[in-house]
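Subgroup meeting minutes
Present: P.N., E.W., G.H.
Scribe: E.W.

1. P.N. recapped why we're keeping a running log of single-chain structure predictions: easier to compare across weeks, and new members can see raw inputs and outputs side by side.
2. G.H. added today's entry (270 aa).
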Amino acid sequence: MSEMAGLRPEHFLWELRDRVAWIRLNRPDRKNPLTFESYAELRDTFRALAYAEDVDIVVLAPNGGNFCSGGDVHEIIGPLTRMDMKGLLAFTRMTGDLVKAMLHCGKPVIAAVDGICVGAGAILAMAADLRLATPRAKCAFLFTRVGLAGCDMGACAMLPRIIGQGRAAELLYTGRVMTAEEGAAWGFWNALHPPEALETEAGTLAARLAAGPCFAHGITKTQLNQEWTMSLDQAIEAEAQAQAICMQTRDFERAYRAFVGKEQPVFEGD
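Output recorded in log:
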């Protein structure tokens, strides 16, 4: 199985603490834009996380007071205007593959967002399982403001499921900023925290999840994603099979024994 402790990425910061991986884009002077290289490296990292036994939770964190300013204007948008259709499609498929890798990495992903979170940065937050933010977080799906459609990297499928069709349509058509207060009221942000407390709160949430039944968390993530395209009958049957698998784990037995002994269960992810 892949072990991530020794990962040394070139295009973002990586830290593994207590089975929680912290990822930060590392261009704070530019509010952390994405490049062709950082897109690809993030995609490959999330793909590898699906096989990593030393990581239970992933936190996407800010750097220098901002989360991500989207695709770099000079290093991505400029070159895209000169590409042919084959090159453009290769790029858009690659960016979509990053979202797919996040969805299929088998680990809960927490986005901890401060400051600017726009374009592809907003997509990274959207693709996370849980989203924390500060009151100064500014999130915008601003694709129409650069002459593109709002249907980027799965936004038209995922955003309506999080905040509702009408609200998603407004944000995707206008590209306007969703304020932190709006995002919290609409369910995009799970919670708002002061900037100085954001990473502490994200770490606390990550530690809580990491202390839980991590194999079962992976099953939960799989079902949350796969049941989008299932009928209700199919979903109920899929969950019956998934839960039967979890009932064969040692963590399920540990929880039972702890309950009988009036103790707190200690899960080990097997």
